Amino acid sequence: MKNVKKLVEYVLLTLLAFFFIFPLLWMVSSSMKSEESIYQDLNSVQALLPSFQITEWLSTYTELFSRFDIGTYLFNSVFYALLVTAGAIVVNAMAGYAFAKFHFKGKNIMFSLLLAMLIIPVETIIITQFTIIHNLGLVDNRLAVIIPLIANAFFIYLFRNFFIAVPDSVIESAKMEGAGHWTIFWRIMLPMSKPAVATVGTLAFIGSWNDYIWPLMILTDSDKYPLQVAITSINATEPVFINQVMAILTISTIPLIIVYIVAQKYLLQGLSSSGSGQK
Amino acid sequence: MDLTKKQTRLKRWEGWKSSSLAFQAQPFYFLLPAIILLGLFLFLPALLTIYYAFTDYYLLTPDQRQFVGLRNFTQIFGDPVFLRSLQNITIFVVGIIIFQVGMSLGLALLINKQRRGNIFLKVAFFSPVVMSLVVISVLWLYLLNPTDGLVNSMLQAVGINAQPFLTSPNQAIYAIILVSVWQGAGYQMLIFLAGLQNIPGDVYEAARIDGAGKWKSFLHVTIPLLRPTTTLIVFTTLIAAFKLIIQPMIMTQGGPLNSTMTPIYYIYQTGFTDRLVGYSSAMTVVFGLLIVIVTFVQRRFAKEDL
Amino acid sequence: MKLRVLVAGMVSTALLLSACGNEAESDGGDNEISLWVQTSSESPEGQAMQGSVEKFNEQFKGTYTANIEFIPRGGGGGGYEDKVNAAVSTGTLPDVLTLDGPNTAAYAESEIIAPLDGVISNTEDLLPSIVEQGTYEDEMYAVGYSESSVGIYYNKEMLEQAGVDLETLPTVDEPWTWDEFTQLSEKLTDYYEVPAIDMGLNDNSEWLMYAFSPFLWSQGGEITSEDGRQAETVFNSEANMKAMSFLQHMLNNDYTTISPAENGFETGQYPMKMSGSWTMEQLDTNYQDIDYDIMPYPVSPDTGELVTPTGSWQYAMSTATENEEGAGELIDFLTSTEAVVDISLANSVLPSRYSAIEEIEDDVSPQMNTLIEQNEASGKARPVLPEYPQITRSFQQTISGLPYYEDQAGLQELLDEKAKEMQTSLERRE
């Protein structure tokens, strides 16, 4: 009886796991066979397996790379994401440091204003953001993809909380040795808050990598497209080959898998503190 | 970098710092980049949106912008598409809260149990999270194709009729909910899991001694102790769900028959495709206010937990 | 320290890269004429344009030099148009630019493009649809350099096998009525047990307006009133009801489908496909096994009038130009018979001038000639309205909503609702 129950449990769990994973399997395996066989395999288990001809595995990718400038899109995405990540860490940490360790006039008001900004639903104001980029003459400029993503009220808040925990005595003794705030910031604060740096860095990287609407709006030159925009453009460029679409989806997912494996721990930290953050 | 160079640079810094004016200004320097960027891309657009909402700003003739009073606002409430989008987003938000939060809690409870192969389950449940919204939208567009999609061929294999999914005004929004739940549940599962593992074992022990069965201790121990985690998850999911745009944009273009048109997508279309920045801004103001109100109400309810 | 160096490095790279993207848009010299086009320089279309511009520079040596800049449209289709939008507010429009037919009204109304009075030679040689598409409030603003059309592709073998005598199929001079077409569809659907025709109903885009509005026109219906201010009572008129009933009938009997199999016609599953001239190229390169021909659009049984889709990209002069004469010369040159012939042959599109049609008739396939003939006889341009984006969206939703309304009452409800939606859009800016 107990064994039967256990069996049932495992069968159900396997089904559930299957529900979550079959799209991914189909995506990857479909990118490793011909378009024809994708449709032929629909009604069998083979749908979730790559072609039996190992030589066919990479041919979709070769075709895709010869039709589209995938290398450029990949480079763009990595380039934007790295710059956003670096910018987000530095800019927000600086502001977090100011809020944590300086005493200045209007600090409380500014901090409340900052928290209030968390409520502004950013996605609703994209049209006005666009008109601003417009007026700055930055439409179709790579900078326009990057700079709006850098400063982030939540990241500032995260850094501030981390920096507050650094005892003042550490800063005092550094000052005694003649270090200025800039030095303290780079040499002491940032190195001491590696988890915050990692959390912000990971979130910023993923945010930039997955960004779609904004680059879609401000970029016109396809040489500047990040992968996410390139995906929809490839999916709309006749003739559309389904195996090539699956290949570009796979290509754009791989870097994120790596990021998630490396940074899983920090992601959770980021989210858990995001909630407790807004008392 | 060699040492002498570093030292001279350090000295320069110190010299600057010790002039009292510079020292006073320092917090300002540290804040400046963030202030400029937040001001330019968050604060200013928010204010401008409110201003534009009262004008007839047309994207192609920015110089001929004129003040039109409340005209945009009166039109919004007679706009069948905008009203429909509010209805759709309500369905979506409620659906997401129920199914996504429920699903992620269920998955966390499943995984929390000691069993062989758990790590495989965890990876499976989490796997959709690593895909971007664009990727999952394009992927499911093919999976849910009514004629030659994998989902229908699987349904037919177990004797269920092929479904129209995204091409039906009655099913499309639910298909989008399904896809979104599938994508997001794994992430929140991990948070729930962390919450579950924070519940000390002796609490359950005490409940067992008091004679509580499995179900009872779930109801009276697990659920109450998970409340802060649940609040946190509901909170973040709710706000994110209101901003739905990528899935309908890629999968249905808001159709069929506006059944998947969402407020943000409509704001995007009117402001960008139709070039009616003024009108679109008025909708932004209305919908933005709505989100802010929901945020406040929710925070009030959740005060004790946050 | 490493991080700091890294950041500094990346920021300077970003600045460098963005600087590259921002070279001067137009240098405003008297002899230099800047030209923006929406294609890529590698495409056959782009190469034909490049060729024509070189010929222009040769002919006007010493007087004008035209510089062509390629700004390929993105996948969403908007890329090029967004760049034009941006140039409007920053005052960096070129002297001459291309624009899609449906944008004529918005650009003319916003004074982005200037009227072309007396600039174009030989206007009576232009196809009427081209003139219609480029005209806003009785003035010509833009000239199409090619045309497009849609026909009913059919698989000869499949039709014959199902017992259809190919000799009896319709011609441009004697098109079939909707009833006759429905009968053929029924026969094919019964024989093959698949939808007889892929009408592209899964394509939620401009295609629906482009390909399906001619059915309304054939019945005598309209989308909006002539002055473009009224959609209620016009879009939900009796004529439009009739035309939509034909489509509804095709759908409800599964003669066509809103979710056709991918490449169903190209792979020999479906016997017919409604599509534009671009499908010919695809069939000829990727699916050579399919032996196909093209028949014209079916027409309303009440009027018997053949009306077919048209539309193309066009050249126009920007209001920002300081060299109206040169810009005018360039547009005239690029829409001359010679340039139109070049682009038609290079890009397998239809010509926009009668004289060009005469020149290429003998050089193109019989299928292409059917489309050209059909276009010449019956092409009609889409409405020229500043509110076009909203109108076309409501129209698209009407077509894709058809399968969910099974009877006449439901259909009327759908048309009423969409007419109201269009009406609110038309009144929004008043």
From TrEMBL, chain A:
Position of the signal peptide: none
Transmembrane regions: 7-28, 78-99, 111-133, 145-163, 184-207, 241-263
Chain segments annotated as coiled-coil in the UniProt record: none
Cross-referenced Pfam families: BPD_transp_1
Cellular component annotations (GO), alphabetically ordered: plasma membrane
The protein's name in its UniProt record: Carbohydrate ABC transporter membrane protein 2 (CUT1 family)
Membrane topology: Multi-pass membrane protein
Lineage of origin: Bacteria, Bacillati, Bacillota, Bacilli, Bacillales
Subcellular location: Cell membrane
Matching Gene3D superfamilies: MetI-like
Protein family: Belongs to the binding-protein-dependent transport system permease family.
Keywords: Cell membrane, Membrane, Transmembrane, Transmembrane helix, Transport
From TrEMBL, chain B:
Biological process annotations from GO: transmembrane transport
InterPro entries per UniProt: ABC_transporter_permease, MetI-like, MetI-like_sf
One GO CC term on file: plasma membrane
Membrane topology of the entry: Multi-pass membrane protein
Domain ABC transmembrane type-1, first and last residues per copy: 86-298
Transmembrane stretches, start-end: 28-54, 89-111, 123-143, 172-196, 217-246, 276-297
Top-level taxon of the source organism: Bacteria
Keyword Transmembrane included in the entry's annotation: yes
Record's subcellular location: Cell membrane
Family: Belongs to the binding-protein-dependent transport system permease family.
The protein's name in its UniProt record: Carbohydrate ABC transporter membrane protein 1 (CUT1 family)
UniProtKB/TrEMBL annotation, chain C:
Keywords per UniProt: Cell membrane, Lipoprotein, Membrane, Palmitate, Signal
CDD domains recorded: PBP2_TMBP_like
Signal sequence residues: 1-24
Protein name per Swiss-Prot or TrEMBL: Carbohydrate ABC transporter substrate-binding protein (CUT1 family)
Organism: Sinobaca qinghaiensis
